[in-house]
Amino acid sequence: MKNKRNLIILLIGLITFFFIWMYIQRVNFDYNTESKFFSPENGVVYQEQAKDVYGILALIGLILTGVLIYKRKT
């Protein structure tokens, strides 16, 4: 049972790290007046609102990971 719990904590932690990485990456983009960023390297248009979603998901993941780690220790 402990191995399953540790695996879940690890998985949620990795997903949270991904969301944090995406949030930091999107914050550094220079958006235009239409709240869009065009990537000339791959031709993709990124919306500014996506960074807020990644930030919220990262925050939820951090809280969930913290709660699971706390519960594991008690």
Structure description:
The protein is mainly alpha-helical. The protein has one domain. Helix content is 69%, strand content 11%. It has two helices and two strands; from the N terminus they run H-E-E-H. It has helices spanning 2-27, 49-73; strands at residues 36-39, 44-47. Strands 1-2 form a two-stranded antiparallel ribbon. Strand 1 (36-39) and strand 2 (44-47) form a beta hairpin. Helix 1 runs antiparallel to helix 2. It is elongated, with a radius of gyration of 16 Å.
Question: What order do the helices and strands come in, and which of them pair?
Answer:
Layout: H1 2-27, E1 36-39, E2 44-47, H2 49-73
Antiparallel strand pairs: 1-2
In short:
With 74 residues, the chain is mainly alpha-helical.
Overall 3D geometry? elongated
What is Rg?
16 Å
The string of secondary-structure elements, in order, is: HEEH
Q: Please give the share of residues in helix.
A: 55-70%
Total of helices: 2
The count of domains is 1
Please report which band the strand proportion falls in: under 5%, 5-15%, 15-25%, 25-35%, 35-45% or over 45%.
5-15%
Number of strands: 2
Characterize the quaternary organization of these chains. single chain
- The low-confidence parts are none
* Order of strands, widest sheet: 1-2
Kindly report the average pLDDT value: 91
Secondary-structure content class: mainly alpha
Taking the sheet with the most strands, its summary is:
2 strands, antiparallel
Distance between the termini: 15 Å
Keywords:
74 residues; two-stranded antiparallel ribbon; 2 helices; elongated
